[in-house]
């Protein structure tokens, strides 16, 4: 999976939690870095922050949906504004988590996106 967030502390905490769950995590700090990593290997899931400098999460999601339409993407955002979530879901995101999120909710959401049992 690729975890994308421009905030290094959040990136590391979420990656640690996912790795503790036994998942392989590749970290990226921007939408552009995520897309570059996609050229190396197609992941089974992308966890993608909405607000980032440069190519933001919504733009990255749009490109991901064009290049790998079956790739599940879960959006992450510090904003609980319903319009952001609606837009992401309309563009093909599988789910949307508002930060800070409960570790159990993170696990449920990720496992659901991967099609795995809890």
Mean pLDDT: 93
User: Mind telling me which CATH architecture this is?
Assistant: 3-Layer(aba) Sandwich
How would you write the strand order of the largest sheet?
Answer: 2-1-3-4-5
Taken from the alpha-carbon principal axes, the silhouette is globular
- Total number of helical segments? 5
Sheet-strand content, in percent, reads 15-25%
Q: From the alpha-carbon coordinates, what is the Rg to the nearest angstrom?
A: 13 Å
> Can you tell me the CATH topology?
Rossmann fold
Percent in helix: 40-55%
Largest sheet: 5 strands, parallel
Q: Could you state the order of secondary-structure elements as H and E? A: EHEHEHEHEH
Structural class by sheet pairing and helices: alpha/beta
**CATH homology superfamily name:** Response regulator
Number of strands: 5
> What is the C-level CATH assignment?
Alpha Beta
Oligomeric state of this protein:
single chain
Task: Describe the structure in your own words.
The protein is 47% helix and 16% strand. The protein is α/β, with parallel strands linked by helices. The protein has one domain (2-113): Response regulator (Rossmann fold, 3-Layer(aba) Sandwich), CATH 3.40.50. Helix 3 links the parallel strand 3 (46-49) and strand 4. Helix 2 (31-40) runs parallel beside helix 3 (57-67).
